[in-house]
């Protein structure tokens, strides 16, 4: 079964992650996401892309099984290729979040321009609990959220609520669950009420306004992950402990 559903309405495309219950993304789903985003990127009639999850989760992240040594390179390559298209997408992108938005799921939402969520949504980058770190977040969150907030979230791995996500500027609005669809329709309607040509040029200008250091930061973050982190005893221990449903025993090497 497909992990994605695509709908078109005028100049708006809506891509829905559909791997219930928690939209955990495995290698196949990541490949599908990359392909779908690449096809949408080539459609110059688009004025907005909406990325949604399910009722219980936007996405609880990338499958832990795909973090093993034999799959980690393929996983990072596929996941980051999809994130890169989203991050540089030629039209505005809006993430619509209900429930869990964790790990790679939070990175996926972060690669969008704007984020709206329900008041009951939960966020976090808990990778440190598994003996690793999120390379995309490490490269992008210092600019998105500020260096200290990025450091605190990645070093503690703590889960936080929608009110804090709104306060940190990670989401533009947190609304009661019944109001989310109306809030999304309002935001997308305001965007698409303008000239599509001008919208796309504005997006290009906004992309140019980002820090130019991101590509270099991501490359170095990926290198540390692949060449150094994966060789630590504690990354293996963290992933193994998670899969064995026990507490990790760190040896600090």
Description:
By secondary structure, the chain is α/β, with parallel strands linked by helices. The protein has a domain at 4-180: Alpha-Beta Complex (2-enoyl-CoA Hydratase, Chain A, domain 1), CATH 3.90.226. The chain is built from ten helices and ten strands. The chain has helices spanning 27-41, 72-87, 104-110, 135-145, 147-156, 162-167, 180-192, 196-208, 214-228, 233-243; strands at 4-9, 12-17, 48-52, 57-59, 93-97, 100-102, 114-118, 122-124, 159-161, 173-175. α1 (27-41) packs parallel to α2 (72-87), α4 runs antiparallel to α5 and α4 (135-145) runs antiparallel to α9. The longest helix is centred in the first third of the chain and has 16 residues, at 72-87. The radius of gyration is 18 Å and the shape is globular. It starts with a strand and ends in a 10-residue tail after the last helix.
Short description:
By secondary structure, the chain is an alpha/beta fold. It is 46% helix and 17% strand.
For this structure, the quaternary state is single chain
Widest beta sheet: strand line-up: 1-2-3-5-7-10
CATH fold-level name of the domain at 4-180: 2-enoyl-CoA Hydratase, Chain A, domain 1
Approximate helicity band: 40-55%
**Quick one: CATH class of the domain at 4-180?**
Alpha Beta
Strand content: 15-25%
Order of helices and strands: EEHEEHEEHEEHHEHEHHHH
> Could you give the count of β-strands?
10
Low-pLDDT residue intervals, each spanning 5 or more residues: none
- Figure out the total of helices: 10
Cα(first) to Cα(last) distance is 41 Å
Sum up the overall morphology in one term: globular
Overall average pLDDT: 97
**CATH homologous superfamily assignment of the domain at 4-180:** 2-enoyl-CoA Hydratase, Chain A, domain 1
CATH architecture of the domain at 4-180: Alpha-Beta Complex
């Amino acid at each position: 079964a497909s992990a994605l559903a695509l709908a078109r309405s005028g100049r708006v495309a809506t891509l829905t992650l559909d791997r219930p219950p928690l939209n955990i993304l495995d290698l196949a789903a990541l490949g599908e996401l990359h392909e779908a985003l690449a096809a949408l990127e080539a459609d110059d009639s688009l004025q907005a892309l909406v990325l949604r999850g399910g009722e219980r989760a936007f996405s609880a992240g990338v499958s832990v099984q795909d973090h093993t040594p034999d799959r980690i390179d393929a996983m990072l390559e596929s996941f980051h290729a999809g994130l890169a298209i989203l991050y540089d997408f030629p039209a505005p992108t809006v993430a619509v979040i209900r429930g869990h938005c964790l790990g790679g799921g939070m990175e996926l939402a972060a690669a969008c321009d704007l984020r709206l969520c329900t008041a009951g949504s939960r966020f976090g980058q808990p990778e440190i609990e598994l003996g690793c770190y999120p390379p995309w977040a490490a490269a992008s969150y210092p600019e998105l959220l500020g260096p200290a907030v990025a450091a605190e979230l990645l070093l503690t791995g703590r889960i936080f609520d929608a009110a804090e996500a709104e306060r940190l500027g990670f989401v533009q609005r947190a609304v009661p669950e019944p109001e989310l669809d109306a809030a999304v329709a309002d935001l997308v309607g305001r965007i698409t009420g303008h000239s599509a040509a001008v919208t796309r040029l504005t997006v290009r200008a906004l992309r140019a306004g980002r820090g130019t250091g991101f590509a270099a930061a991501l490359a170095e973050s990926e290198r540390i992950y692949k060449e150094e982190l994966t060789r630590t005893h504690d990354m293996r221990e963290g992933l193994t402990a998670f899969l064995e449903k026990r507490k990790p025993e760190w040896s600090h090497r």
